[in-house]
Amino acid sequence: MENKDKNDDRYLKAKKRFEKVKAFYVHLLIYFSIILTIVFINFKLTPEDHWFWYSVIGAGIPLLIHGLKVFLFNAKWEERKTKDILEKEDDKQK
Fold this sequence. Notes:
By secondary structure, this protein is mainly α. The chain is 89% helix and 0% strand. It contains 3 helices and no strands. The protein has helices at residues 2-45, 52-72, 75-93. Helix 1 packs antiparallel against helix 2.
């Protein structure tokens, strides 16, 4: 019974991780689609002024944060920090 619970827990964690990675790739796809459209419009209407960089940077910052959250500060990091916080709370109560 305990083995089944562990497998279910591992499956749920893996599914949650997959959903986060999938959401990032959807975000990435939308970003590039929109940026390519903006670059096309910029070069079509005002090729002498490269104002598309504002969109590249403005939309790129949230994408970068999303990527860092998914790949750098992933579930293992969250679990470690949660464990650290709980241990500190236990130490305060003693």
